## 1
Amino acid sequence: MYYIGVDLGGTKIAVGIVSVYGKLLYKYTVKTEADKGVETVISNIIKCIESAVAEYGISISNVASIGIGSPGVIDSETGTVIAAFNFKDMINVCLAGEIQKRINRPVAVSNDANCAALGEVVAGAAKGYSDVVMITLGTGVGGGIVINGELYEGGRSRGVELGHIVVNHGGNLCSCGRRGCWETYASASALIKRTMEEAAAHPDSLLAKMVAEAETVNGKTVFNAAEQGCPVAKAVTDEYISYVSEGLIDLTNVFRPQIILIGGGISNEGERLIGPIKKYVAENSFGAGIIEVPHIARATLGNDAGIIGAAMFAKRTLK
Amino acid sequence: MYYIGVDLGGTKIAVGIVSVYGKLLYKYTVKTEADKGVETVISNIIKCIESAVAEYGISISNVASIGIGSPGVIDSETGTVIAAFNFKDMINVCLAGEIQKRINRPVAVSNDANCAALGEVVAGAAKGYSDVVMITLGTGVGGGIVINGELYEGGRSRGVELGHIVVNHGGNLCSCGRRGCWETYASASALIKRTMEEAAAHPDSLLAKMVAEAETVNGKTVFNAAEQGCPVAKAVTDEYISYVSEGLIDLTNVFRPQIILIGGGISNEGERLIGPIKKYVAENSFGAGIIEVPHIARATLGNDAGIIGAAMFAKRTLK
């Protein structure tokens, strides 16, 4: 038997054929076309599943279940996307029902960041750990939590919006409507915004020069400038690291996981990001020096985490 | 069979005889004498248990188990107080072992705020709810979390330090060593500190007059002044309510409980505290208007919650 995992992204849909042990055997990708509305997105998911199955050379009857990791708030009990704000009209759509109607296999849906965390536990950097927090530093800040080896989704699967914990009361306006959310300081977008601001404010700095010469300014730009000795860049990365760490300390103080994984584009900065975060978290967590702090490491599966996790979520849920 | 719950406080020890259904049948109290060291505290606990049993007219052999709610970080697996900072030398003390050695009954230990949350679920304002967050606004901010009807204590029972989530990066210095913790803005102590500061800064205000005339300035002082129309007091209560709410929104976004209970001295302010908090949380939680927000209510058991919860924790744990 095979398990299918679907990573439903804003730009592309990735479908994976996954083994019973959580190994990704085959992957197929199509465009999401989110702007064309829900019906198009659903038929693209179906097409992508059918193509993956056909290309890998199996039949849909060899598929035990299908798991979908979707952005937004999900009712995983009914497989419904309650609201995914970057999809047109994706409000109260029973994705599980719609897919199941057209492909006669059981379908489960969870939040994409939740699935990524489960994927890393089953087959990635958190393998062997039972209590895990994973965060993804991308356009926003996503998160997933595993407690006692099982995905924790919050009450009625509507929780674990880890990007939306406050770090500065009354601070930056967040897309969720609140001010001061962690996401507005710790996302890749926030880092790039601060990079541009500080480059503009210090036109003679090395940072400004590197920004001007860069084809695309991304999270790497300011870390590179800091490494080359630019004090303006160093101030930006220090500030960024402090904000990422503050949120991680909150999650440490509340969940005290064995390990925290950091994923998303920014995690490619590796030790120059994670080294200082480890130090900051160790020094500032509750009971520092007395209570063990979590390991902190990079997620290793990249985008495949969501696919594997979605497949395993369905496998575990649809018993 | 009876169950004993012990609420180990900094000033007094309260022992309760609790029924199998979580009803508090009898209560006995002695002084903690925390300053005299661990040995004295332990023998006071023993004395208090023995007195409670004798006064209620049962024998210790009628007691199925003993639960202790202790401040500090607890390893509930071994019944050890890892660190309770306001007790002299209470570091790595196996309270369960010490009590069990002298009274031959099974003993379990958990954090006092955790026990209070469980107590409210078993016999108080959260009865009938399975997903609950309870916070206590006192000298500090304590918290407990119940998930699926069971106490959630964090990894190795070292989590759920709800007072130590950040609300202002770089803000007020907290006793835990970190800056900006929720506790430094939302505790009763924080409210009283702000009351005194603003009364001093506005000597002609009604608040200043009421502070000067008060026998003891407590949380009620500023709420009373605000109700009588003092704008200085109103600004203090508004600010306080916003800080309490910000932390509750974090807990909502992460746990999405069915109900949030507020306990501690400040909760006596009733609707003039809870009314505005409800509004603030409803308006600023993630997915406001789309995802249900938790009920928010006062805890009803007061100090008895910790006793009942400790007894029920031991009953559930020591199977």
## 2
Amino acid sequence: MVIVMKLGATEQQIEHVVDRLRQVGLREHISEGEERTLIGAIGDERVLQTVPLEALSGVERVIPVLAPYKLASREFQSEDTVIGISGGVNGVEIGGKRVVVMAGPCAVESAEQIITIAGLVKQAGAVILRGGAYKPRTGPYSFQGLGDDGLVLLAAARKQTGLPVITEVMTLEDIDLVGGYTDVFQIGARNMQNFMLLKGVGQTKKPVMLKRGMSATIEEFLLAAEYILSQGNTRVMLCERGIRTFETYTRNTLDINAVPALKALTHLPVIVDPSHGTGRRELVPAVSRAAIAAGADGLLMEVHHDPENSLTGDGAQSLLPDQFSQLMEQLERIAQAVGRSLLPQKEVASAFTGGWSGTLT
Amino acid sequence: MVIVMKLGATEQQIEHVVDRLRQVGLREHISEGEERTLIGAIGDERVLQTVPLEALSGVERVIPVLAPYKLASREFQSEDTVIGISGGVNGVEIGGKRVVVMAGPCAVESAEQIITIAGLVKQAGAVILRGGAYKPRTGPYSFQGLGDDGLVLLAAARKQTGLPVITEVMTLEDIDLVGGYTDVFQIGARNMQNFMLLKGVGQTKKPVMLKRGMSATIEEFLLAAEYILSQGNTRVMLCERGIRTFETYTRNTLDINAVPALKALTHLPVIVDPSHGTGRRELVPAVSRAAIAAGADGLLMEVHHDPENSLTGDGAQSLLPDQFSQLMEQLERIAQAVGRSLLPQKEVASAFTGGWSGTLT
Amino acid sequence: MVIVMKLGATEQQIEHVVDRLRQVGLREHISEGEERTLIGAIGDERVLQTVPLEALSGVERVIPVLAPYKLASREFQSEDTVIGISGGVNGVEIGGKRVVVMAGPCAVESAEQIITIAGLVKQAGAVILRGGAYKPRTGPYSFQGLGDDGLVLLAAARKQTGLPVITEVMTLEDIDLVGGYTDVFQIGARNMQNFMLLKGVGQTKKPVMLKRGMSATIEEFLLAAEYILSQGNTRVMLCERGIRTFETYTRNTLDINAVPALKALTHLPVIVDPSHGTGRRELVPAVSRAAIAAGADGLLMEVHHDPENSLTGDGAQSLLPDQFSQLMEQLERIAQAVGRSLLPQKEVASAFTGGWSGTLT
Amino acid sequence: MVIVMKLGATEQQIEHVVDRLRQVGLREHISEGEERTLIGAIGDERVLQTVPLEALSGVERVIPVLAPYKLASREFQSEDTVIGISGGVNGVEIGGKRVVVMAGPCAVESAEQIITIAGLVKQAGAVILRGGAYKPRTGPYSFQGLGDDGLVLLAAARKQTGLPVITEVMTLEDIDLVGGYTDVFQIGARNMQNFMLLKGVGQTKKPVMLKRGMSATIEEFLLAAEYILSQGNTRVMLCERGIRTFETYTRNTLDINAVPALKALTHLPVIVDPSHGTGRRELVPAVSRAAIAAGADGLLMEVHHDPENSLTGDGAQSLLPDQFSQLMEQLERIAQAVGRSLLPQKEVASAFTGGWSGTLT
């Protein structure tokens, strides 16, 4: 932490800042410039998160030096976290050499629908089934999901296909219920800063996929993950799903920079959602290829065999099963080009960037 | 709703769209342009929110004509909603001719703190006391509020000063508890699309102040209000608190345009939060004046008598009591200039824009 | 400037950074933290703008402490700059106690149009006439302005009404030509970083109104002003005209925070353009009032007596003459409430914020 | 164009709109809904760009149906534009099956520097040399490029290596001068809407690379291209270089969605600049791979053999020559995976997406 004092700050003001630093166990380092005095805080500056240094008189600006998250950082843990998913018939690992594809409908709509789609995506190479039981919708008059019934249908689809499932939990109260059915909790973008919910899933032992908030910075995204980690649940993966910008041609702007940035800053697996990240079916293949080329550990994709009759209105971003199958072949080629593999039956290629160092959690 | 067909869309595709419209009880109106065919949907297009028209083959784009919210709209109710607050010793109305100032600390920190500040802001003319018991914080290592104890202290401050109180409720589970103490529920910006929570407060009878999400459009803001209204609670007020943009000098960019835009689109009262909207104490006075000049029905402001020792780190945006008192005098002058009044002891000036038409709810 | 070294940076890397600082005449101040070493650069850090410190090995981050602009800063000149406009029959000063209104059509369209509007806005209290001769348009098929003929018509309107004029110069080549007609150069938002053009008007002696770029930060805005100032022209005023955000209901988001922020950071006058800042005629009155309440020194507004037949398509944001007259009365009341005045015939009220300290340039 | 009338619009208002449409040669199609009347304009709606329909009384909103650009659209020309570059010893084509890499320093700094780097990037497989002679810099105190001398040095580097060159032209006045040296004009992001400059290069016969403005929508980007095309120069390529968002970890947010979106909307070649798009050297490899996987026709990259001594301060985003060589090998693998090739000596793979249909211009 560097505290920049105002032009003309008095000795007394400087001393006062120093006193506050010492009170919380830090040491100071004063640097008198020609125009400004700077005070460096030495020690673990995270203790300063509750000290309103910017409110002290004579202080112009406070500049953090360290990242405000710890457990999520690469500095804390240098090897990649690899998350084993226990549900389903075959082991699936997220964050390892194999790129993982999670696919399925936006929402569970009926037994026939979810079982049909589950079969189709499994056949094409997906290893986890997605599908919403509870759907956060912008307006109250839209279809809100089947709720509890949706959970039961997801479990039925898992039984039928052997695919583990991921579904969203929207409120603290539902954690036990949803946890009774799902293999991975999804925290939606709108709930990325629902801190009660983050703490709640942090107290479970199930893997959690945390989606980036629509206008969350990378730092805020990692702090949200830190909420979960700080409760003891280390099986967290991050999902880039597009951010909100001025561009209106696409539903969101997929932040491809975030993929390598997150891989550098954190040891947690990084998933990309090209369906929400673009909002347009015709852009999903290109952006999916890009995500894997950029180093994503997995993809979350919407697939629907009958988007015209989808209840969620998100049909315009769902791939048809044929499109999905063709795309999976393309994605395998990209995965191979970066030294990984994607389709369950394929060999994992030899390392590309020289060194994959995951540790199973 | 206007459906724009792709260049070269077939007769069959057009008929298929028409069939879908008729299925949900709408009529169509077909307009064949030189390059594109347009299909207008006649009837209440809100029924189309569950029909994925954009997924139909041959459809290029779907353009809504009507706003997707109804109860919140001026068309539904032309007179201003005026919300009477029952707590406290004197009646307070929000949305009427008098501009309402809600002030207090970011968080309740101690009995001494909240009672001191409550007294000071009351003396300066505030009519509602704000203070957080539960605090949503970006990182898990920051002070998270006193929780239940904070609620008790707020109630004590109300008893002492006669000011009704407003405080945030963060999760569905806490609605009853918080409702037992507060006079107005605050829904924070991060929870603007926590739909479970919106429905929850919609089922109570207490007034709700809904803060705009950091990257919520005006339409999404009104749809979030619609969630509350649709559950039967009509006592909703909207709070513009700054949006996230590329600008980093200020914490947020206060969207002053949103004030007259909301007053035109909805009958609900509009509050402005200049403390979060700027994040800088020295900008709060100018932006507060601007808010009232633009037509805001109230202000939500942070005031702290000892920001240096505030636990939330938000001290840099809190006004000192003296600054607050001086500002209140300035604000009264602006309120008078737009035909309103602000300080409890002042006369309400004669109407300015020719016509104030609130109805008490 | 504070240089944050990477975790584990070597002695050699630190020495290398120190060498580079000394080479450009700065001194260093080293602070060894528990996790990171920080190096403070002592002296005028602006010399570092050509040294790529972030590219030095072992450097994690470089944090500027001083603003990168100088001539534009309040620290360089504490009193307000007041710009006297010499054209027109009566003296007009910008940046003084009187709030200045510049009004007129988006584009000059004909002699009849510009002379009619000039008369109407003068009568209502505007003191400068605006009107575009060259119009930057998003697409090549839109009306691009009358060009040179527009300049001639503007001069005719000035002669008729005695109002000085402001018009946009779009390219370096046209500076002499436009300067032969206009009293104030306008640099449009799209040209805020057309550095050749900035330098060009910086070499003239005419006042310049610089509009903020659509996505320019406040710092970039001031750096663009610095380009003009650094060429010797000190008569620069800044115009906030809305920034681009995710919100689509309004054409731009007027950044009201920028008004007090600029007044604090710079001595240059601050103008607000509510017409472009909102893009909607019905929002212009409220936002104009807000701008003056927030401390703006002037307004730039579009007024058209026949917007239906305007050639620019911007008619939807132009006020009708009657609306403009009524608004001017409201604005006078707000100006009085903040201790200023606006209408030419009115007394300037006694100081409000205690101290107006302009110096005529 | 669909004109949405206000609730309660009168017959007379509707007739008036119809009259205006007929005046410019369009026909109307009226659709009376239950709440609103819609009027469709039939014919080439581009004629309406100068009619301020939104200013007509009774009009609520005007919704364009057609894209406002024409020459740039895929509908106007379905086959890809392929641009042959005549400078240099070997033919280079942009927009064909081979992915093109343009590399070099941010700015030309000296003969030794540009010739050294030119040799290194050529050896690694780049086919065009980039380097700025005139540099647009945010502040006036930064290095502004060598100017005319830089052009001479670029030409010398071309002679030495046989690589054609690309460099930025910043103002109308310099077009002839710069055109005397460069093989491709670059229009920088800050000048994307410098319409005079666009028209100027549109009147030459040299290829132009147009960079996307920092906050330009895809539609505005294509309209800027349309300015050039409309002057007769059809050899235009588009460069996505990152947009400005709220994220501050990266310098810009590279909009990967824009790559397939542009490929769908226009026939012009699409280049990606990962150096500016990320602003961080360590993110450039991942994002470069992503760009090619997404379908980009080329990359523009900064390479410097001695970034520590670079004069532009952009050293932090320049690759070192070794990093660049290694990256080129990775990129070749990605190019092959999408059925293309990148290194000059490699075979172009067989088509991937089934059909490449360029036409040489």
## 3
Amino acid sequence: MYKKVDNKDIEYLRSVIPANRILVHDEISDDYAHDELGGIEVKPEVLIYVRSTEEVSKVMKYAYENEIPVVARGSGTDLVGAAVALEGGIMICTKQMNHILEVDETNLTVTVEPGVLLMELQAYVEERDLFYPPDPGEKSATIGGNISTNAGGMRAVKYGVTRDYVRGLTVVMPNGEIEHFGGKVVKNSSGYDIKDLIIGSEGTLCIITEAILKLVPKPAYSVSMLLPFMTMEKAIEVVPEIIRSKASLTAIEYMSLDTIISAEQFLGKKFPDTNYEAYILLTFDGNSMNEIQDEYTKVANLCIEKGAIDGYFVDTDERKKSVWNARGAFLEAIKASTDLMDECDVVVPKGKVADFIKYTHEVGKEVGLRIPSFGHAGDGNLHIYLCKDSMAEEIWKQKADKAFELLYTKAREFGGMVSGEHGIGYAKKPYLARQVGENQIELMRSIKKVFDPKNILNPGKVC
Amino acid sequence: MYKKVDNKDIEYLRSVIPANRILVHDEISDDYAHDELGGIEVKPEVLIYVRSTEEVSKVMKYAYENEIPVVARGSGTDLVGAAVALEGGIMICTKQMNHILEVDETNLTVTVEPGVLLMELQAYVEERDLFYPPDPGEKSATIGGNISTNAGGMRAVKYGVTRDYVRGLTVVMPNGEIEHFGGKVVKNSSGYDIKDLIIGSEGTLCIITEAILKLVPKPAYSVSMLLPFMTMEKAIEVVPEIIRSKASLTAIEYMSLDTIISAEQFLGKKFPDTNYEAYILLTFDGNSMNEIQDEYTKVANLCIEKGAIDGYFVDTDERKKSVWNARGAFLEAIKASTDLMDECDVVVPKGKVADFIKYTHEVGKEVGLRIPSFGHAGDGNLHIYLCKDSMAEEIWKQKADKAFELLYTKAREFGGMVSGEHGIGYAKKPYLARQVGENQIELMRSIKKVFDPKNILNPGKVC
């Protein structure tokens, strides 16, 4: 169906991009055949490290004319196969488009290329007393990738998700045309909101080559507290109580002892406390220490009243490091604890978090799988891992299918969605279809066709 | 091209909607032929007051099968002809779908029908110590209308716009199918973001029949300050300085003496001070009075250093009333001061506000038109009015065309957009096309076709 890349194509590509930034066939590392989770492996035929919008445009125009599939990829940290070149063809890697182009202190915006890493962006703006609030766990993801999945992260409780911080996008369309959507403006009611359609579309509608992001002044203070509980039930049941108290929190993360132990083993570092079955990690930030104190006193008292054993400040540098490093290593640690795993990134209404986590335990027992989880209790987005451990392939597949079916069905029942922040990609397509129904999938497919009539951009993903 | 409504159609409609909620031809008030600005007048053939999603679905299904155009309308307060039935046909009025269905205190959401008025929603949630931040000047607009134009308002500086508060939508598609997009969830990365495509689409893609809106805890304190300046230049030049100071403000509004005098005359009520040429109105809110005091002291000192004559608190009930009533009456007052007017709702990057307002004065002089303006200086969204006064029709048209051309060209130059919050509707179509170019208009038209292949829903609008 698609054209295979031949010598003539490579010759053309080398005429528009320097040859040392084009790799073909066996020159391409196996790392580019899969993403972080590695559920599916296909190598692209050509890998191009692009450095400008114009280069992307030239490659895309040629691919469009010749019907060669193209996949854009940043750091490849995704978990659903979105950055895998299912049909081979050209992979455009944005890693070298990693410049921060402008910080605009009057408009409070930063303009970046898509290959800038989240951790680079955060550090860069914080040095200037500014703040980019979205804070997904994977700090080495690119901003292009974050925009393409509408990444959320820990601070969504207070600050919202990536979408809320994207003001403008420059993109290359499947036919190679360069378009700009949005800009530095704060309000916009000028025609259909194409920008928000592109955000979260996982590289299937166009390739993002520049983004204008909103910043906020950096909060002067940030305080975290760790609260241990005797049981997981007690820990998660306190979350809706905290929300109903209308306290102003930045993050509410939950973590179970088994996940913490995995992280300790993985990192070879101690967590401050491993005496209890479950923990809630709270963050508060703002410009007034008095106000923050009022808030955390109120919330800590509420938690202790509802069963927290204690409340430790995560204040010394050492303690901060041990807690946040562990939190950052959860995914890697669970991955290292099993032969293979698959993940479920559901989001449910905040009030249903406790019920949903309890349900994962029931499913684990019913299906006979280890199902550790952690996640963003404060915004309803849970990261749930199905572990193969040393199970036989056949049995694992059966059990995982059954567990996914149960989990996504329950999420739907609760008014939740298939993915909170990791996207649909290749792996979650059947679950999305079941959730939104044939009409909406057809609507998405038709929109895809409007952007990409030849279906050459990241084919086989989302819908 | 479209089918005209005949007796058979009316008979069918009366079989699915009670007859007392269906008006035909001369029974329909002239008010339904135009919007608030009244730039274009066409009467629908049938006006139906719907009361449920199912009723809208039945009407829409019939209209689709019979190719009768349909326009949904709330309070009709728009200014660009978006709610006018250009092609006649059926007007669906949502005014009687005005129920607040649920306040969910755990998820901090409110579920509403589209005909709920903004002022009703605000009052309802504030009684429950909750807060719906979007605050457009026109409080009698419906929430359905606010969503359809992505209305912004005064508090966008701190809280963002309507889009940021829409979590879920129930809609009726042009073919009558009922669909749900989003939900109570905070994060979402589950396929293309159709919900945000619908927001701001001015009723051209589907009809919104229910919305789940995000709420926040009501801030405990809100303080406003009025600062007079000797000249308009001095007043608006202080705005970027305030923004660069990284102070936390809720609103920064600017108002000129001539607009204030118009409002005084219109209302027959005195404004607290009319001794100076220009005023800036600032609002601060939060839960800590100490923090608010720190902020307004810092900002007031900065303003006085940069030329403010004084800083009055808008604190007594009487003063609050006189200032906010005047602010709320600006549009009506300017309208009353002239035979006819047209408006320009551009949004420019915040740092360009001062330059743009100065440019409106130049254009006024150059073209020979009175061009009063007011607006949201803190977010770059300006409301600029071209006044016909007693000019001859012919000359007015020429002058207005020239002025619009100059204003929109300058906005583009500054990286601004045609509309910040009033939308494109019928009146601003040529300016949108010029701004975004043929490719993007074609993209929008193709998206419109995906939703509405027969082009029966609000035809002739946006693109």
